[in-house]
Design brief:
The complex is a heterodimer of chains A (402) and B (228). Chain A is built from 15 helices and twelve strands. Chain A has 402 residues and is of the alpha+beta class. Chain A folds into two domains: 197 residues, no CATH class; 164 residues, no CATH class. In chain A, helix 10 packs parallel to helix 14 and helix 12 runs antiparallel to helix 14. Chain A is elongated, with a radius of gyration of 31 Å. With 228 residues, chain B is α/β, with parallel strands linked by helices. Chain B has a single domain, classed as 3-Layer(aba) Sandwich (Rossmann fold). Chain B is built from seven helices and ten strands. In chain B, strands 6-7-8-3-9-10 form a six-stranded mixed β-sheet. In chain B, helix 5 packs parallel to helix 6. The longest helix of chain B is centred in the C-terminal third of the chain and has 18 residues. Classes of the chains: A alpha+beta (402), B alpha/beta (228). The interface between A and B is medium-sized, with 22 and 28 residues.
Chain lengths: 402, 228
């Protein structure tokens, strides 16, 4: 076998340009598949991370009747957290309650509709540790008339740290109210939507603005272990529960579509590669009829001739797949550490996506191994027919072929 | 007899016709012979060589090698017979271009299933044809005459029962052709190697010890050659 391998490897260099062109299709197919899977995997992680670290935790509860579309914040449907739910929540992990409401932020002649998140400054960081968030300035102090804004909102309204803004909102009983707040922090979170249209107020400041009382719109819980089981433990106590995965289902479904589309594109590239390899191997067989006839005349078995040509296809596929995997894998590994900044495209979408502007690709070895295996297998299978053709050559005729 | 055709007929389909390349031919080659199958194109000499070299099977009749009928053997079994018992020299040399001279010679030993160190045998075979300084050259780096010498070394290295050479000088100039023929004649005389040629070259026929003439698929003469 090692001798056949050596001959097969040398044969590939007889027409190096043709081998290189054919291998390029496998190279790009493998590199693209690893890049694509790393990117879509990174998108999944990004969506889950954005939701987990900025509003949902592992399990998110909303009062019964409260909208679940994640876009509507109906203050009238917010409700106090009942004592039996508090007990249940205390039993499963760390939790925090928030109240979201719509408001207008006014800065001089400029105004923008935003969502204000009223939060508990003690509990909130335990559930949302804000690791990796960038804060220009600091978080508001309770009762100090301070607010933190998403950094892109600040940039849109040209607000600097320390400036005053006015927040206007309808109170829980429908009246219009407004208060002046000092901007003490511009927040860059993991969530582009919050960065563009979000503001954070301590309950001590939010309650008088919107007359919240003890009404809460969201309860986010951090749990160890199974999210579904945790959700079941706290459901049915005046609040309905959904897991992190259920919260992100729409965006994850989009990613599943992306993954399928990518598989189709990669499949088509690999099909082109397979046709190219089959063509290259059959050309090699046609060009080497006399040589094959000579090998048969010298006593080489037909199955060894078949193996020789399949090895040529296999080596071509394997080497191109390894190079493609190195290229694609290195890029994915680098971007998994350094991230890709999608601020531009996400800003052009108005910051409506609940995901980070920096996407970290997901690197793991299984797609790399799968792509190499797939690329090599395609090459070997594509060589099968030409190899069989070569193995059936009649030596008496072939040794005199031109 | 080392090998023999007994009542052999070989037919080829050509369109709707069946062309008879050999018609009930009986001819054999004994040990130590230096025999030529001569005849014009289409006479059946190459077909006879292919059958005696186990490269093809007869339509009817027997092909005997060491008194055993090999006509009905499987492809792999015939391949094994060729690998161990028969050496080939071709008109176009037919060296494997990606292998060096020594690797081409070694290939014959590998396929013959020769165990153990082969390098010494390979070097000795190439030295016997005067190519001891060209061991690591590829065929593209050798002249036509040198390539045919490598082919001779490849045919002889496994000590075959018979060497079959199909027009071995046809692609060589007269000087190289004569030199190659002299080399084979020397191996025949010194080492008793059996050679069987096909040719229509008078120079080759002049060195043969036996000339079998074929015409239209039949043996028309079997006579002593000028080299006898």
């Amino acid at each position: 076998m090692s001798f056949l391998l050596a001959i097969a490897a040398r044969n590939l260099f007889r027409n190096a340009a043709r081998t290189a062109i054919t291998s390029a299709a496998v190279f790009f197919g493998v590199a693209l598949s690893i890049l694509g899977w790393g990117f879509v995997g990174g998108l999944d992680e990004n969506v889950l991370r954005a939701a987990r670290t900025t509003y949902a935790g592992d399990v998110l509860l909303r009062p019964d009747g409260y909208p679940t579309d994640g876009l509507t914040y109906a203050l009238a449907d917010a409700a106090p957290v009942p004592p039996d739910l508090v007990s249940a929540l205390d039993g499963i992990g760390k939790w925090t309650a928030r109240t979201a409401f719509s408001a207008r932020v006014v800065s001089g002649p400029d105004a923008q509709r935003i969502t204000v998140w009223a939060y508990d400054g003690v509990r909130d960081p335990e559930v949302f540790p804000r690791d990796g968030w960038k804060v220009e300035g600091r978080w508001p102090q309770p009762g100090a008339g301070e607010v933190a804004l998403g950094y892109r909102l600040g940039r849109l309204l040209e607000i600097e740290e320390g400036e005053e803004v006015v927040l206007q909102t309808r109170t829980r009983d429908g009246a219009i109210n407004a208060n002046s707040f000092r901007v003490v922090g511009l927040i860059r979170s993991d969530n582009s939507a919050l960065d563009s249209l979000g503001a954070w107020l301590e309950y001590a400041d939010a309650t008088p603005l919107a007359l919240l009382g003890d009404a809460r719109s969201h309860v986010a819980v951090r749990v160890e272990g199974d999210h579904d089981a945790a959700a079941k433990l706290v459901a049915g106590k005046g609040f309905h529960a959904s897991t992190l995965e259920q919260e992100c289902d729409d965006l994850l479904a989009l990613n599943r579509i992306r993954r399928k589309s990518l598989s189709i594109v990669v499949g088509m590239i690999m099909l082109i590669a397979a046709v190219g390899i089959a063509n290259t191997v059959i050309m090699a067989a046609f060009e080497r009829v006399r040589e094959v006839g000579t090998l048969l005349a010298l006593g080489m078995r037909r199955r060894d001739i078949r193996v020789l040509f399949m090895l040529e296809g296999g080596i071509m596929g394997l080497s191109a797949a390894i190079l493609g995997a190195c290229a694609g894998g290195s890029a994915v590994a680098w971007w998994s550490k350094n991230g890709i900044d999608f601020s531009g495209p996400l800003e052009s979408m108005g910051g409506s996506m609940a995901m980070s502007t920096v996407i970290y690709t997901q690197f793991n070895w299984s797609p790399v191994a799968a792509a190499i295996t797939f690329g090599t297998a395609i090459a070997v299978l594509a060589s099968l027919w030409p190899a069989n053709w070569a193995a059936r050559i009649v030596p008496a005729d072939a040794v005199k072929a031109d | 007899m080392i090998c023999k055709l007994v009542g052999v007929t070989k037919s080829y389909p050509m369109g709707d016709l069946l062309v008879q390349a050999l018609r009930n031919v009986t001819v054999g080659v004994g040990a130590g012979e230096f025999t030529v199958f001569a005849g014009p194109s289409g006479s059946g000499k190459s077909t006879a060589l292919n059958l005696l070299g186990c490269l093809d099977r007869p339509s009817s009749g027997e092909v005997l090698l060491d008194d055993k009928n090999v006509a009905s053997l499987s492809d792999d079994a015939l391949g094994a017979v060729r690998a161990r018992r028969i050496g080939f020299i071709f008109q176009s040399f037919n060296l494997i271009p990606v292998l060096t001279a020594s690797e081409n010679v070694d290939l014959a030993l590998r396929l013959a299933g020769v165990e153990g160190p082969r390098a010494e045998r390979v070097e000795s075979a190439l030295k016997a044809v005067g190519l001891q300084d060209y061991l690591h050259r590829r065929p593209s780096q050798l002249s036509g005459g040198q390539q045919q010498r490598v082919a001779i070394a490849r045919a002889l290295v496994k000590s075959p029962a018979i060497v079959i050479a199909d027009e071995p000088t046809a692609n060589l100039d007269s000087t190289n052709g004569e030199a190659i023929l002299d080399l084979m004649r020397e191996m025949n005389q010194k080492n008793g190697v059996t050679f069987l040629f096909s040719t229509h070259d008078p120079m080759v026929m002049s060195r043969a010890r036996r000339v079998v003439r074929l015409k239209d698929g039949e043996v028309v003469a079997d006579e002593a050659g000028a080299g006898a």
